Amino acid sequence: MDLKSPISTVVPSLDGPVLLVLAQAEEGLSGRQIHKLAGAGSVAGVRLVLQRLAATGLVHVDDLGNSLLYRLNRKHLVAPIVEQLANLRGMLIDRLAAEIGGWRIPAVHASVYGAIARGDGDPDSDVDLLLIRPDQHEFEDVLWDDQVGRLMQSVVDLTGNAAHVFELRQAELTGHLAGQDPILNDWMQPSIQLTGVPLATLMAELEVVRLS
């Protein structure tokens, strides 16, 4: 899946970015505005797409005299499908959060970072996940590893992309904090929390313990 434009998985043409913009817009937009937000094609190409979509009834066109404003016809039979395709990244986040939230050994913290959190990347980008496990479950390594293995397979099944999982214990996170490891910035900016304690909160708590 293209992590920057997941809708392109199903709509690989210029129609994909245009439909994504329309699905996310609450008001009518001009062709130039849609072109700028879509970040693809040319103004003329975007207008051709809009004209074609308007002919199907999926897009409404409001003539304001000096300009035309385009908006998604949310009553169209296809509109709910377009809206669902426009929210594929959100659906992925929800599915991952639900799976990790049901683990027998709960994660202290779980989040996605990297391309999926930034909203960039391409079809070859990994889905980066940070997992922090509790220190007290050292004797249950097999169960934890099974959970992580199933999660990685779920990412492949849901997206076609590989999962890159960075997992560590709370004690190991303390070591990264003590050494001011640059990877902390990768985990924090930006990231999307899935389950558990927010990373900033957890880091602050561990730092207090480390310095006490």
Automatic annotation (TrEMBL):
Q: Which Gene3D superfamilies match?
A: Beta Polymerase, domain 2
Superkingdom, natural source:
Bacteria
UniProt protein name:
Polymerase nucleotidyl transferase domain-containing protein
